[in-house]
Amino acid sequence: MIHRGVLTGAAVGMATGAWVTIGSKVTAGNEYIFPLYKLSFMWYGTATILVTLVTAIVFSEFFRIMLPEIKERFIEPRLMFAWLRPKTNVYSVSTPARVEMRTTQSIDSSIAVST
Description:
Keywords: Membrane, Transmembrane, Transmembrane helix. The chain is mainly alpha-helical.
């Protein structure tokens, strides 16, 4: 499975978010509060996303190094760094298709004007 690091990061991120949310509610009246529980609820999403990204990157690299089937995969460097590719128009056509268009004369002649 290729997405092991991403799934690990997502699981750890969700667990961290749930842990901080539930822990801050449970320890509301205690004398000693874990410093992460003092985090404002407005920062829960940011902290969870950061934990998810860092964990996913670390575990993706770990799995890439440790597992031989992933280690031997070739990744095209041009797909990883799009801004380093030469600036060419991929969708340009060398010979444009010829399009038949009706002129205004043929349209005017086909309309009969009654007075």
